Amino acid sequence: QVKLVESGGGLVQPGGSLRLSCAASGFTSDYYSIGWFRQAPGKEREGVSCISSSDGSTYYADSVKGRFTISRDAKNTVYLQMNSLKSEDTAVYYCATDRGCRFNEYDYWGQGKQVTVSS
Q1: What is the rounded average pLDDT for all residues in the chain?
Q2: Beta strand 68-72 with 91-98: parallel, antiparallel or unpaired?
Q3: Distance (Å, rounded) from C-alpha 79 to C-alpha 104?
Q4: Residue 109: CB atoms within 10 Å
Q5: What average pLDDT does range 57-85 have in this prediction?
Q6: What is the DSSP string of 56-109?
Q7: What is the pLDDT of residue 119?
């Protein structure tokens, strides 16, 4: 049974940093690529980042490139380090299985974590 549980998030001032974690279970790290997408009120879902199950390659949306870093550890936990946060990064963030890191083929996802960037 695939299970994804996010932790982290919260409130941070513009320019600050946060780290999200995603504990994945029910599959091995070489089976599913794991990505993060976000959903802000009134906006479409946006794929943010992904780490490939096959070779560990990482992918980022242009809106977060250079500021966010995705990584994965040996315990199948995926992290999203978010630096230089902006108000437009405010959203609920979800980790999800992402077939081929295509940023739009999500089969399983967690419950989501709120990230609020505000002064």
Answers
A1: 95
A2: unpaired
A3: 19
A4: 18
A5: 96
A6: --EEE-TTTTTTEEEEE-TTSEEEEEE-S--GGG-EEEEEEEEGGG-SS-EEEE
A7: 95
- In the block, tokens 């966010």 appear at 68
Q: DSSP per residue over 8-40, as a string? A: E-EEE-TT--EEEEEEEESS-TTT--EEEEEE-
Q: Phi and psi of 99, rounded to 5°?
A: -60, 120
* Contact criterion met (CB below 8 Å) for 106 and 97: yes
Mean pLDDT of 1-16: 96
Which is nearest to 52 in space by CA: 99, 112, 2?
Answer: 99
Which of 88, 103, 97, 2 is closest to 46 using CA atoms? 103
For the record, the structure tokens of 57 come out as 């390659």
pLDDT higher than threshold 80 for residue 28: no
- Give the pairing of strands 113-117 and 10-12: parallel
